[in-house]
Amino acid sequence: MKTTIAEIIQDHDTFEIITHEGPDEDAVGSSKALGLALVSLGKTVALVYPTPIPEHLAFTEPHEVRGIDNPEISILVDLSDEIMLQGVRPRGKVVVIDHHRTDGPHGVASWIDPERSSSAEMVYELLGEMDVKITAPIATNLYMGLFGDTGGFMHANTNERVFRMAHELIMSGADPHTIAYRIKKTKALAFYRILCTAMNRMVVRDGVFASYISNEEINAFRARPEDTSGIVEEMASLAGADLIIFLKEVHKGTVKASLRSRVADAALKTANAFGGGGHGLAAGFTAQGRPEELIHAVVEEGLKWVCRV
Ligand SMILES: [Mn+2]
Predict the structure, then answer these.
(1) Which end of the chain is more exposed for a tag (fewer CB within 10 A), N or C?
(2) Ligand 1 centre and the CA of 293: distance in Å?
């Protein structure tokens, strides 16, 4: 499939690259790296972000993103679920590059591999297939994606292939210290206010740790969307937490849940019960209701998938 996508790129001139709403390190890094690569091949490219790139992830090139009218091909990177497009409609023939578990192929060509650490890893391979020179800006973007989706080389998807790729990207000009600091050491005070609130009201039952933040609280702390991301990762640092659940009420009555687990598939199975998806150890869903009520149902479901001896 990688070869098919390389051929499609070769055979066309105009592209848009679309990634998911609330773009994370991998979404930003893999989409920008692919964009820079296509430009180096003489293609016309637009990058489309359904919601803006968070400030702390906006440091990589290209800094300006221009639109085009009628792209022949729409490449979806790091997503294969239309819900994540927030109403953005792909205008060309759809090509998908994604590492999330999904319900099947989409568009004219779809390369989906849940075994991959990140979309950045897949884009890197694709660029190799197309003989694209890995410049320092491309390497920086790919390293950002790799670093983000492996949780800074800590998650279960961190392996020999990941470190080999990191090594090669550093040799091509990615600066690991700068990238890590730009991503990790730029938290707003609102982030820690939300974290404190979540920690204070934590529900703990047999290895399931769950908490939430309401929409009123998000507004009271003047938190930007990026200030509410990464909370679940901090909760997942707690000893004894086999399944971690964080609910955030993004709009009044709309709750987004993030789940992490140390027990195989517990996060995914719990998210599935509420119509969501993701990976075995990291999943999510969106539901209607108030978080303080919903949390009990999610904990009950989670307990089914966490087997304590
Ligand atoms: Mn990703």
Answers:
(1) C
(2) 30
Q: Are residues 227 and 259 in the same domain?
A: yes
Identify the domain containing residue 296 by its residue range: 189-305
Query: Do 168 and 216 sit in the same domain of this protein?
Result: no
CA 301 to chain centre: 24
- Cα 43 to ligand 1 centroid, rounded to whole Å: 24
Ligand 1 centroid to Cα of residue 26, in Å, is 5
Q: How far is the CA of 254 from the centre of ligand 1 (A)?
A: 24
Say if residue 172 is in the same domain as residue 290: no
- Three-state SS for 18-84 is ECCCCCCHHHHHHHHHHHHHHHHCCCEEEEECCCCCCHHHCCCCCCCCCCCCCCCEEEEECCCCHHH
Residue pLDDT, tens place only, 208-262: 999 999 999 999 999 999 899 899 999 999 999 999 999 999 999 999 999 999 9
The environment of the single-atom ion ligand 1, i.e. residues with CB closer than 5 A, is 26, 78, 118-119, 149
- Whether this model's pTM surpasses 0.85: yes
Report the number of distinct structural domains present in the chain: 2
Residues 62 and 171 in one domain: yes
